[in-house]
Amino acid sequence: MARSQPQLEAFLEMLSAERNAAANTLAAYRRDLADAAAFLGRLGLELVAADTASLRRYLAALAGTMSPRTQARRLSALRQFFRFLVEDGQRKDDPTAALDAPKLGRPLPKLLSEEEMLAVIAACRELESAEGVRLLAMVELLYATGLRVSELVRLPLAAALRDQPFMTVHGKGGKERLVPLNPPAKAALGAYLEIRSRYLAKAAPSPFLFPSRGKEGHLTRQRFGQLLKEIGIRAGIDPARISPHVLRHAFATHLLDHGADLRSLQKMLGHADIATTQIYTHVQEERLKSLVEAHHPLGGGKRGRAGGA
């Protein structure tokens, strides 16, 4: 590392001066490059003199010890470092140019089962308070419509005053769409409207369906997220597994489970590209795969136990 230290310091200085990199970012680059330098040092090589083959050996060694995302970050640090050396005239070639990034895969959304959603709804009903009535309305709305949490907390009062099976929502980019309102959501919304005035500031009407006395004028997404985690605990669900976005995922996945088509789901979720909606088909595939492995006689679980008899 000794020969490489001046170049590393110059690289970090460039990141700080030209790209305004934060202290944490600089520390991460330093750690990642120091790790690569230590590995190469054991091969008798300096980082600044590394070739493609030695860097490929380094990345191969990482593959068995860390996630693909961390590997990709290490490779990104190396690429930027060697690009800097080339642009600074300290190297004529970039040994990272021929290296392939690890396949990250597409992270599947967190999900609650239908039984868990029913448990959350039941826990809201058990509160028997104005807070419980409001929370039940928000949970039922989110589960019935798949709204984004930002759309939910900013819903106008006017959206709930029409006795219709659909609600008009203004989503990303000001785009308008219709979302369904099932009977439980309409009932919960009706009960909430009767006590909504409790959340209004004195003599101050609000245009929001879920008003708040805070500076934003409506219940914040952060506060709703806190309330969801609290009700998740009451429902026996790990609070780390529940959030407004998880309820949106539950809406989408459970609809697909019951025969909804992707195009309709795309419209209800407000996705501009159907490729975004297709992630839920991967969720179904993973769930089916797990089900077969756990319960089918030819699956890994039972078959493995039988083979050991």
Automatic annotation (TrEMBL):
Molecular function via GO: DNA binding; tyrosine-based site-specific recombinase activity
Superkingdom of this protein's organism: Bacteria
Localization: Cytoplasm
Domain annotation Tyr recombinase: ranges: 107-293
Entry-linked Pfam families: Phage_int_SAM_1, Phage_integrase
GO BP, one annotated term: chromosome segregation
Entry GO terms, CC: cytoplasm
Gene3D superfamilies assigned: 1.10.150.130, Intergrase catalytic core (1.10.443.10)
Residue ranges occupied by any Core-binding (CB) domain in the UniProt entry: 2-86
CDD domains: INT_XerDC_C
Similarity section: Belongs to the 'phage' integrase family. XerD subfamily.
Assembly and oligomerization: Forms a cyclic heterotetrameric complex composed of two molecules of XerC and two molecules of XerD.
Protein name: Tyrosine recombinase XerD
